[in-house]
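Newbie here. two chains, one complex. Structure please?
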Amino acid sequence: MHWMETALCYSGLFALCAGMPKHYKQIWGRSSSKRHQLLIRTLGWSALFLAFAVSVLVNGWSFGPVEWVGMLAMTGLALTILLPYTPRLAAWLALAALVIAPLWLLL
Amino acid sequence: MKDSFKQSMDWLHTWGGLLFGWLLFVIFFTGTLTVFDKEITYWMQPELHHLTPGLPDIESAAQELARAAPHAERWWVELPHAREPVLKIYWEQAGATETRLLEPVSAARVQPRATQGGDFFYRFHYQLHLDRPGIWIVGAAAMVMLVALVSGVVIHRRIFTDFFTFRPTASSHRAWLDIHNITGVLALPFHLMITFTGLMIFWPIYMPAGVDVFYKGNEASAYAQLEQKFERLPANVPAPLMPLVDLERRAHSYWRGGTTQWIEVKHPGDREALVEITRLPDDKLALVSDRVTFDGATGEVLQVWKGERPAFLTYSVMMGLHYLWFDKSIIRWLYFLMGLSATAMIATGLRLWTVKRRERHSPDGFLFGYRLVESLTVAVVAGLLVAVAVYFWANRLLPIELANRALWEMICFFLAWGGCALHTMLLKNMASIWRQQLSGSAALFLLLPVLNMVTTHTHLITTLQKGMWILASFDLVCFAAGILLGWTAWRIGRPVEVKAEPLGEATFEAGQT
């Protein structure tokens, strides 16, 4: 479940990042429409809220928010460092994380 | 008006950050190591590596205490837990405290090599080994840290649009500023929290007015009332002590699960003896240790304390967030990484100060002031890394029987640090000083697992096989640190190649309007 939280934090932050015009261009080399950006950003915020819910569910109300804030900071840092070197890999990781995240429910 | 406000904040951030940056780097780096203080101590005492945490033999510990110090004023038994698999007994006699380490299950005496272990870093990060003056200095630095964090947010030009921006191939100044910004902004909640809670720990020292007025300046009595400890004087009439193991078992019925951390006996062997059983606060955020106090002679329950008053609980949550006593390994690792992030933010901030000014002036006409600042930065940043590695090396290499061994480990630490400081004065080329000291620390950290393999039986091969994760993680983190520092040394020595990249400043500005 902790991995699911990590995955949701990473892909959520990635979506927020890709929802910004300059980073969208950095990753896919073309510009995006306003509606497209809004959609990606909404997805991003939802993933982050979901990650918060997962963290609280797993760790309880006292530790949940602490772990969530830390997880956001560290996945955010990993994403930001990865982005200029291999933007596509950062994107694939986000997609993979989003797909794999629900699988941890089965474990 | 807005511009002048930003300018004055910029001035504050630059100069406050520079003056206290070196100190803050040391505080944050040693503080980050303190996240794993018990694990570090454990690694530094290979004589304890064979111990397995089992049901501790409390009665034998009590007998050991009765043998060693029958007339002591106080006894303590500290039970083993996941992060520290050793049974400790202490006693206080005529104002002096003595410690003895025991094997948890058999209560046989163990004598590991003398070392300060992780305590060295713990003490360093809040008092610089200077006692009370050190606490004052660290407090001042923490205040400046808060000011630097807030003013840093104010002067950040595009905190939201540059949230994920890192341009490693841009100009040197740009790249360092990006690292400074992302390590600062992404973990900002942590930086603010850890600095603020750190200041709050020493409220009676930093804000003594309340204690002065209500307790006549006596901190101990203020804490005694906060924690509502049950105290009484000895009757000086001998009486046998109830078996501690029974009292410990009875204390559990007042808690919802959990384990015992401490057993304290006040006036052992007296008719007025008190036995205080304290619960390990490893499963809650608040650093509140539930407590049950028994009459030592009759076994009657005198007090059950839970510390649930709102103000005290608020304070305890702040303490809990800082002390990290709870046993949540993921949060512990996140703290470690965020602490490193803060350390990196401070180091890059210091480096920025010179990089920015060097770009503005010609590289040849380097002024004495800049040179001094950069020398100090190398000596503090790279020098501390070398010194920490040397401290670990000394732990493995110094003879075990050496007198004042723990002190010698610290002397090695400070000698290495002083050596690095001297080194920055001897050489002329700043880039090569950076490179040499960083590669030096990289080599020391990379080879530490190898040294461990030569000097102990619990090296990486065994620890990985047997799943001794605390020890294995220590070696692996050293290895990772070596690689990271080596890469930094290689990167910092290279002349910057400024590429004309598609993500230049111009595209950015156009994108956000």
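Moderator note: Residues 2-102 of chain A form one domain. The helical segments of chain A are 2-18, 21-28, 34-85, 87-100, 103-106. Thread marked as resolved.
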